[in-house]
Amino acid sequence: MKRYDGLLSIELAVNGERYQASVTPGDTLLHSLRSTLGLTGTKLGCENGDCGACTVLLEGKPVKSCYTLTLAAEGREITTIEGLRETPVQQAFAAAYGFQCGYCTPGFVLNTHALLQRHPKPDEATTREWLESNLCRCTGYETIAEAVQLASESEPQ
Amino acid sequence: MIGSRPHPHPSDGAVGSIGSSAARKDAPDKVHGRTRYTDDHRLPGMLHAVLVTSPVAHAVITEVRTTAARALPGVRGVLTGRDFPLLVGLYLGDKPPLARDRVRYFGEPVAAVVADTERAAHAAAARVRVGYHEQPPVRSPREALAPGAPVLHPELERYVHIPAIMPEPGTNIGNRTKIRKGDPEAVFAEAASTEVAVVVEGSYSFPPADHAAMEPRVAIAEICADGRIVIRSSTQSPYGVRAIMSRCLGIPPGKLTVAVAEVGGGFGGKAGVQLEPLAYLLSREFGGRPVRLANTREHDMVSSPGAPGLQSRVRLAAGRDGRLLAADIEFLFDSGGYADYAVNVSRAAAYSCTGPYRIPHVKADSLSVYTNHPFATAYRGFGHIEMSYSIERTMEQLAERLELDPVALRRLNAVQPGDTTPSQDELDPNTGDLAACIDHAAEAIGWENGALTRLDERTVRAKGLSCFWKAPAIPTFTDAGALISFNEDGSLNLITGAVEIGQGIYTGLAQIVAERLQISPEEVHVVSEVMTDRSTHDWTTAASRTLFMCGRAALAAVEDAVAQIRQVAAAPLRCAEEDLEVAGARVFIADDPRHGLALAEVANGYVYPDGNAIGGPVIGRGKYIARHLSHLDPETGAGRPGLEWTLGAEAVEVEVDLRDGRFRVLKAACAMDVGKVINPALARGQVVGAMAMGIGYTTREAFEFDSRERVLNGNLRDYKLLRYGEHPEYIVRFVETPQNDGPYGARGLGEQGIVGMPGALSAAFSRAIGVQLNELPITPERLWLALEDAGSPDRVPHPEASQGAGS
Ligand code: FES
Ligand code: FES
Asked: Given this model, what pLDDT does residue B561 score?
């Protein structure tokens, strides 16, 4: 079994780019992304796995970066909100007013993006199963549901 | 002829912006994660502060040992209450930045660790040892008012407070607001002795709750070498923070800049003063280095303030026809350990105490009471939600007693222009059409199809309707300012003091300005950061008054800019200033639009062909201050507290499983008279978001306490917010009775959608199970217990009791 101790220099693959990062074994991916790499689009809402604001994609799968050790992401493709540019999901969230304060939005966008990659036309139950891991305090979810619908109707990338 | 560009005349109506769902200006940044919230700023040399908080609700602090914490690597220092012998408070200076000698609630900060990294600070915080000598906690407002209750603030007499707040030293009362209108005693006495009137009475309660904005509060403070203080904060009140810190800490306001970019949700919880004073004091301890004081979620929920709890009692007298005659009301707000905004929340509940009903005789006492709960601040709805819940519950009882349709009863008593409010203020012609709202809400929910339907032997569907009103609880001198400048292409920049907290204020303001100038909102660039030294003064982004007041200030700034543009353009256009009009990015002769100039040619000075120049940069200045507001009389409450009243009605439909109390909220409808809809999509978003919060507030959101008043659910795992898929079908309808002093007739709408929800939902659930439910939150367990008590034949064992049976 591999053992880690002290400050380690590792390579992280984020949004198709390689980063050299100094981390400690206890660093969460959320912390490394925000504080070490300066990718502040990933948000901190609870650091307890409850809110989904910190959602990123690991090999295309949504994970809560506050609950993921950075070392566990070494050698795996990480996608943060900075890695998505004008995707159908982002356009849909903008067009459908799928946000207010926007703090939950990176997490919702990434989660929805992954959902539609896996299920391009998700039924209601599937969407709910995926998105109930993210909290939004502002919208009451109506416009988020509309954004998901809108994105699922647009051409896949 | 000068100028050759096409020139739409305003009357062409080519660009109309008001009433259209213009795209949000912040959309591209927000969907790309580019929006910078306060905690996304990393400053060179920044230190990190972490709070050590009290694990008990009420205790004398016997010692604080910090040696072990200080010894850890990376720790710069540990500060305790003794280090900062001062008090801070919004209206009433009652709170030390860190507890001194005594803690008054579970989660109260007692020490702050400052370290090079957040992790080192957390590690050290765990090593601070605090000795507590526990005292019996005060568990509710009624307990706090009982004879012999511990007085939580023995020094109340010495606290500095504003005149509108009237604390009662020697008791736990932080403020009392009285309403005395007409002669309610006589009406109740007559009702008791005759058959012409009926009297109903009820008591209601709910525990404190939390805003749970997704962005935890954070403040980053630094002190420059010349003594200037810069605080970046997730605040709704940059100018409020400046004023309060200046008052409580003796800082010259010109030396203090409060900066706020975007805020990740506020809901009242980031109004007033929050982490800023402590962040500043910590920076001062470390030579002015930037200190970041960021709440963990747990600290954000419990250590920072939440929503007040309530215990209330309402007595109503009505004629047999249902006409309300008199009200006797008591609101006891649970302000927790400190006063903060709660002392004004209780005041707002007083001046609105009857709900939107015509009641000629009213007596009300609304108190803000100290307890050993987490302290309370502004919360969306601000006193009106608590008031509305209490009144609407009693209205349901009255309808039942008189065997009247609850909707008809409300319609019969709905306020109209000419009626007087509890503070004896006459409702002016700008008052909205409540009856129309009631009709819309009733129709939207299908009231005429029956309020109670049995689907099968275990399932019922029930409806409930309630009315609401809300007037902003603001100082009489609440203000807003605006500045307009122009770019080389004739587009303009708008500076205000309004904070974007999710409501879309910059888009709404751009639309208001664009409408007046007949340009696209995209040509109005709104400065999306407030800095107190360079933005315009603005009371606070709260009380649903920002679109109204900043909108008025922005319009005034446009008028000022237009006057300057006409003055400059009159010379080259060789006409009188008053002949000129500004629209569509041009200034032109109103009766002959062929003669004109592009704004780009005049807004920063006009240059003649020979090189001579006139004018210079146009700077439009605008301001607004609340009109005709007055203090409430201390004995009768008479006065004019509110800028405008927003009226409306809400209705819901729920489905309840009678065996175990589980339920779903199927539909939630809101009809609101907003004066004028500026942006339909944004307006709907505010109302729907508020309704969703109201559903959570009514059905699940509340702090749970153990027997020593320690919070059991101060995190987002145990404090359950509404999640995706749990939301109902929302129906929103707007009625537009113009608010003639609002911008384009608009009035406030940001909070109002929450106000009627507890009343409407309580009515529906009560109807579903046939038991009046007078406490919140209404959880499945509470329904199940109520069904148990009522001896429902359909009951099954409590779900928890049946656990372990296996399956
Ligand atoms: S911050 Fe990771 S789930 Fe909330
Ligand atoms: S938009 Fe504010 S939390 Fe979702």
From this structure: 98
Q: Does the structure's ipTM exceed the value 0.95?
A: yes
Residue length, chain A? 157
pLDDT tens digits, one per residue of B119-159:
999 999 999 999 999 999 999 999 999 999 999 999 999 99
Distance from CA of B432 to the nearest CA of A (A): 26
Residues B331, B383: Cα–Cα separation, whole Å: 10
Helices marked H in B449-545 — which ranges?
505-517
Contact A101 B212 (CB under 8 A): no
Give me the amino acid identity at A140: G
Q: Distance between CA B115 and CA B122 in Å, rounded?
A: 9
pLDDT (average), residues B15-42: 94
Mean pLDDT across B446-462: 97
**B265 pocket-lining for ligand 2 (C-beta < 6 Å):** yes
- B95: which DSSP letter? B
The residue in chain B having the minimum alpha-carbon distance to the alpha carbon of residue A130 is B724
Render pLDDT for B228-256 as a digit per residue (tens, 0 to 9): 999 999 999 999 999 999 999 999 999 99
Find the DSSP H helices in B381-429.
384-402, 406-413
Q: Which ligand is nearest to the CA of A103?
A: 2
What domains does chain B contain, in order, with CATH numbers? 39-135+217-294 (3.90.1170.50), 309-474+631-791 (3.30.365.10), 479-625 (3.30.365.10)
* DSSP annotation of B213: -
Task: Kindly determine whether residue A106 and residue B691, on different chains, have CB atoms separated by under 8 Å.
Answer: no
Q: Scanning the structure block, which residue is given the tokens 């400052």?
A: B114
Q: How far apart are CA A99 and CA A141, in angstroms?
A: 9
What is the Å distance from ligand 2's center to A92 Cα?
A: 16
Q: CB neighbours (10 Å) of residue B90?
A: 29
Q: Which of B537, B513, B535 is nearest to B525 (CA)?
A: B513
Cα(B788)–Cα(A41) distance, integer angstroms: 50
Kindly identify the ligand whose nearest atom is closest to the C-alpha of B211. Answer: 2
Two tokens at B544?
Answer: 């649903």
Q: How many CA atoms lie within 13 A of A27 on its CB side?
A: 25
A98 Cβ closer than 6 Å to some ligand 1 atom: no
Contact state of A106 with B33 under an 8 Å Cβ cutoff: yes
> Which among A54, A105, A134 is the best mutation to test ligand 1's pocket, defined by most ligand atoms within 8 Å of the CB?
A54
Put simply, whether B590 touches A (Cβ < 8 Å) is no
> Do B507 and B679 form a contact (C-beta atoms < 8 A)?
yes
Residue range B626-634: mean pLDDT, rounded: 96
Going along chain A from its start, the domains and CATH numbers come out as 8-81 (3.10.20.30), 86-154 (1.10.150.120)
Q: Is B721 in CB contact (< 8 Å) with chain A?
A: yes
Read off the tokens for B73. Answer: 């690597």
Residues forming beta bridges with residue B614, ordered by sequence position: B606
**Predicted pLDDT of residue B195:** 86
| Alpha carbon distance B362, B585 (integer Å) | 55
Q: How far apart are CA B304 and CA B274, in angstroms?
A: 7
Ligand closest to A137 (CA) is 2
Please state the rounded mean pLDDT for residues B361-382. 98
Does ligand 2 come within 6 angstroms of the Cβ of A103? yes
CA neighbor of A57 nearest in space, from A99, A116, A11: A116
Query: Which strands sit side by side in the sheet containing B729-735, from one edge to the other?
Result: B452-456, B459-470, B646-657, B663-673, B729-735
Could you tell me the distance, in angstroms and rounded to a whole number, from the CA of residue B245 to the centre of ligand 2?
29
Contact between B756 and B649 under an 8 Å Cβ cutoff? The reply is: yes
Q: What is the largest CA-CA distance in chain A?
A: 49
**Ligand 2 neighbour A53 (Cβ under 6 A):** no
Pocket test for ligand 1, best of A35, A51, A133 (most atoms within 8 A of CB): A51
d(Cα A109, Cα B33) in Å, to the nearest integer? 10
Ligand 2 atom closest to Cα of residue A101? 2
